[in-house]
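User: Can you fold this complex?
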Amino acid sequence: MGPGLDRKNILFTCCLAALLLCSIIASTGMGYMQIQWQDILKVIGGQLFGAPEMSQSVEASIPYIVMDVRLPRILTAVLVGAGLALSGVIYQGILLNPLADPYTLGISSGAAFGASIALLANITLLGHFSTPLFAFFGAIATLAVVMRLSTFGGLISAQTLILSGVIVGAILSAGISFLKYLADEQVAIIIFWLMGSFGSSTWSGVLLLALTVLFGLLITLYFARDLNIMSLGKRSSDSLGVETATVRQTLLLSASFVTAICVALTGIIGFIGLIVPHLMRYLVGPDNRKLLPASALAGGILLLIADTITRAVLPMEVPIGVLTALIGGPFFCIIFRQKQKGRAYE
Amino acid sequence: MNKPVALSTKGLSFSYGKVPTLENINVELSTGKFYGIIGPNGCGKTTFLDLLTGNKKPSAGTVHLFDKPLSSYGKRDLATLLALVPQEYDTGFGFSVEEVVLMGRHPYIPRFSSPTPTDWEHVDRAMEAIGILAMRNRYTSTLSGGQKQRAVVARALAQDTPLLLFDEATSSLDIKYTLQIFNLARDLVDSHHRTIVAVMHNLNLATAYCDEVLIMDKGKIVSAGSTRSTLTTEVVREVFGVDSNIAWDEYNQSYQISFRYGGKNQ
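Assistant: Here's the predicted assembly.
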């Protein structure tokens, strides 16, 4: 808590931010066509400063590849990673459960159910936005049901919230299976969407995600100290002057909104919201004022690396949700085992 | 001389759904006194404390704190007047002891501000009084139940409130630390004019430390007043169904209760 530790923390956050920028540049250069980092900086600089002459010396196709193909996808991966990690910190903090993540509440299943309906019924009323919009409404409706189920006498209990999330999630998963069964020939589209993909990222999606993640980060940083105290349990935080019920509701809604937008735009991507907060808690400690920015940055870096591996390193593109689960799952098992061992010796 | 009233309730009732937990509780608790709340398991003691702290809303009746309705205080203001040491001692995702005790200063530190030297003074003094200064940098996840409970008591002391509510605050502590905390509490009442309301199960601690006791049974206060005149063998039999004997203890300089045990050494 002293000044020395704070300076260390600022330095660590700056290092993460620098690492994120380097990862973005490196990833932009990787792919079917390798691009030099100098050329990437010229193209981005030209766009940022409105000076097209900066990118005159690079090959004609490069500005198109950088600006229209790779960067929207890369920034989408970064922002979704940041958003999911941010939501993970909030869910874990509020539910007082280190195993909680954006999926424990059933939000992702709700989004997936909504999207599956749009895909199955071939709803194209709103063009490209139909599936994400249905996913979003699915997520919000699920949140409403889960919160209604776990509210007693105006209070939400952390245990009933998880239970309700698991119950509603299970019902929705069964619903998705039923939709797949009905889908017949269209089943491939649903399955592919459910596995997650950054393939169809656009600049408008990037803008929406950026605004959403920024909103999420600001609101959670505002309540970060309250969230620290809420980890002591409701009776303690209430008696320490925290408006526990209001803060909990505000943060849950914000985290679910961020999750819903992420899932709506890119499908289900698991484990980022679970692993990143764990890793960062290990590195910067449990103080949410430090944990939130660090997790957002690390979530962005991690998902970008995963997406770059599937896009540019592997011989064929593996759905990103499958990759994060394949890498993240075993990694999480190791953390879980170590934690349990530590507890057994206490 | 009558001491000013710190906390009072009128017709206070609470029910979970249709089941009444507390019925028509009327009490007046004066400043500068040590109160014990005594009663069998499940008689509504913790619910009563939750109503006094505003953590639960009464289904009927009112609570007044320093002559103003409890509901007229903002959460933060309330936290500068009233501190609770809860039964459970969750200490979060591995914060250090110092950080947990510093959380007691939350109501005094504006949002986005850092703790002032005065805040740190309170934190240090609280840790010193409880004897946990040496473990200030230890993570609470590595502490034993008793050590955690002491950190939570220190947190409530750092809150620096005129009223302290203890909900079985020494349930995980050995006799040494139990006495340390009760001696400290008694000193806060005698030397610093604080008011303490403690839910307790050990009747002998009540006779040794409390000025007055409130005896609860089945959601009601069945008897209240000075410890000596209220905590009688008849009340113990009526409320707990246990035979006892109360006698002056020279060694301890207080009345002590002995119970009729049924162990094999009898």
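The interface with chain A takes residues 50, 53-55, 75-80, 82-84, 86, 88, 90-96, 98-100, 102-104, 106-107, 111, 115, 142, 152, 155, 159 of chain B (CB under 8 Å). The first helix of chain B runs from residue 45 to 53.
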